[in-house]
């Protein structure tokens, strides 16, 4: 009886160990590094179900196809090229493989789309005496519309900084928040900014977490809630501008804002990049980064592939030659229309 119990324990131990593979099991060889990369992604990447449905991605088939390209005597650059091409099959701008000599990345998420942003046009709108704090450029346009441009969320913005911005813009009829070409950064900065546009604790989306190595192993969706800023909060019409290079934390910001009262979204579909990142290391020291926690909007739709604006507007060449940004001009028109509508309602009440 004791022998039988020992055998059962021994078999269970073998099964348990076989389901938990550590990096130490992979050798620092082309095959070992390739296998480590494939398995790390296989167990932790969160968008396999979406990719399979969208374009039929078969991650196991990718392993078979790219592992056939490996050679025992290949150099690091050759191995890096094979690994980078395999990762590109995920079609995900959040997936990067970093080595001392290069970083593999996927840029088709924005390169195959209209730019819908111009630095030269923006300089016309901002002028030379715009204000700048925490990387945020802001000014008052001639028609009394406030304009904020946030080029990146790679930083932090305090309530005092936002108080200063909103105090300066407080007499404006409305506010344009431009996050075009903002490729993300710190999610906390995006959340702090969005919290300045709400007056009560608000659910702005949902998140799930991986619970196992299976491609469909996820926790239940958990709400993402924002608490109103303790400082000044904007109470007038807001128009958020986006394009395909609005990505990652900036994509999340648009998701937070799009369903809030008084907020309208204008421009092009955002670039996506909704999942929270995960990092790991191969035996040779190369690091891989990709999305591991999928996020969703308040309707529980994934925002990984981007968010459609309420009003789709492209930058027109005929406006460009006139020194006008079609998307900004459309936003200004919306704010003025909202102002006229409010005035009409007040007149009716009177």
What does this structure look like?
It is built from twelve helices and 14 strands. The radius of gyration is 25 Å and the shape is elongated. A seven-stranded mixed beta sheet has the order 3-4-5-6-9-10-14, sandwiched between helices. The protein has a four-stranded antiparallel beta sheet with strand order 2-1-12-11. The protein has a three-stranded antiparallel beta sheet with strand order 8-7-13. Helix 4 packs antiparallel against helix 5 and helix 9 (187-194) packs parallel to helix 10 (249-257). 37% of the residues are buried. It has 350 residues and is of the alpha/beta class. The longest helix has 24 residues, at 326-349.
| β-sheet strand percentage | 15-25%
Structural class: alpha/beta
H/E series: HHHHHEEHHEEEHEHEEEHEEEEEHH
- Could you list the spans in which at least 5 consecutive residues all have pLDDT below 50? 1-23, 346-350
- Can you give the helix content as a percent range? 25-40%
- Strand neighbour order, sheet with most strands: 3-4-5-6-9-10-14
From the alpha carbons, calculate the radius of gyration and give it in angstroms. 25 Å
Average pLDDT across residues?
90
Any idea what the shape is?
A: elongated
- Beta strand count: 14
Keywords summarizing the entry:
12 helices, four-stranded antiparallel sheet, alpha/beta, seven-stranded mixed sheet, 350 residues, 37% helix, 14 strands
List the helices and strands and how they pair.
Elements: H1 2-18, H2 30-44, H3 48-55, H4 59-67, H5 76-88, E1 96-98, E2 103-104, H6 108-111, H7 119-126, E3 131-133, E4 136-140, E5 145-149, H8 159-169, E6 174-178, H9 187-194, E7 202-207, E8 222-226, E9 238-242, H10 249-257, E10 263-267, E11 276-281, E12 287-293, E13 295-296, E14 311-312, H11 317-320, H12 326-349
Parallel strand pairs: 5-6, 6-9, 9-10, 10-14
Antiparallel strand pairs: 1-2, 1-12, 3-4, 4-5, 7-8, 7-13, 11-12
Helix pairs in contact: 4-5, 9-10
